[in-house]
Design brief:
The complex is a heterodimer of chains A (116) and B (116). With 116 residues, chain A is mainly beta. Chain A contains no helices and eleven strands. In chain A, the strands form two sheets. In chain A, strands 2, 4, 5, 6, 9, 10 and 11 form a seven-stranded mixed sheet that branches. A four-stranded antiparallel sheet of chain A has the order 1-3-8-7, with no helix packed on it. Chain B is an all-beta fold and 116 residues long. In chain B, the strands form three sheets. In chain B, strands 2, 5, 6, 10, 11 and 12 form a six-stranded mixed sheet that branches. The radius of gyration of chain B is 14 Å and the shape is globular. Chain B starts with a strand and ends with a strand. Chains A and B meet through strand 4, strand 5, strand 9 and strand 10 of A and strand 5, strand 6, strand 10 and strand 11 of B.
Chain lengths: 116, 116
């Protein structure tokens, strides 16, 4: 039973560099979410995919952020020209969309980004 | 606007005793879902329990139960027979039924420490 996996678990980068994170959802799940969590806060929604289509983006997702899910399976989140304010935990979640089902989102362990 | 409020930044409980973690929510939707997640120091968000707004009975999952009081807009988590492994951050979250993305709105969390 494979859960949501995220890679890398930790990333340290210098300001101005680009970083890319990967998320592999639970295999049969067609919905995939990205959240950001800063210290002492709950996760905040960034963006959402149903299959390969990116259907919603939060205002938190500036132009420096881009997410893809090319074949409706794994997803990548890229941050260009990182800033110190991007330091956070980036969490990926997946769920199975079945009408009015609970749509329980299952989360990965996250990627912790530190921008120096 | 949708909002989740967790007023207890930190809680202590003695091992084997029960503890209640508070959560209130604000929504104008009739259809919504309420979730509790546990986040250990490792970072992964672990789904605990779900309550739908139309569910007439309070949800239970093992040692977890959700005290749902719709008129008061509260969804408190009760953990019975606390164990040392229950020490973690606990987040209450809401998903509105009218929002097709089913994104979750999280509270700021409660840190629970179980004393031996």
């Amino acid at each position: 039973d494979t859960g949501v996996s995220q890679d890398p678990r930790h990333k340290i980068t210098k300001r101005g560099q680009n970083v890319t994170f990967r998320c592999d959802p639970i295999s049969e799940h067609n919905r995939l979410y990205w959240y950001r969590q800063t210290l002492g806060q709950g996760p905040e929604f960034l963006t959402y995919f149903q299959n390969e289509a990116q259907l919603e983006k939060s205002r938190l997702l500036s132009d420096r952020f881009s997410a893809e899910r090319p074949k409706g399976s794994f997803s990548t989140l890229e941050i260009q020209r990182t800033e110190q304010g991007d330091s956070a935990m980036y969490l990926c979640a997946s769920s199975l969309a079945t009408g009015v089902a609970k749509n329980i989102q299952y989360f990965g362990a996250g990627t912790r980004l530190s921008v120096l | 606007a949708q909002k989740i409020t967790q007023t207890q930044p930190g809680m202590f409980v003695q091992e084997k005793e029960a503890v209640t973690l508070d959560c209130t929510y604000d929504t104008s939707d009739q259809s919504y879902g309420l979730f509790w997640y546990k986040q250990p120091s490792s970072g992964e968000m672990i789904f605990l329990i779900y309550q739908g707004s139309y569910d007439e009975q309070n949800a239970t999952e093992g040692r977890y139960s959700l005290n749902f009081q719709k008129a008061r807009k509260s969804a408190n988590l009760v953990i019975s027979a606390s164990q040392l492994g229950d020490s973690a951050m606990y987040f209450c979250a809401m998903r509105e039924g009218q929002d097709s993305s089913y994104k979750l709105i999280f509270g700021s969390g409660t840190r629970l420490l179980v004393r031996p």
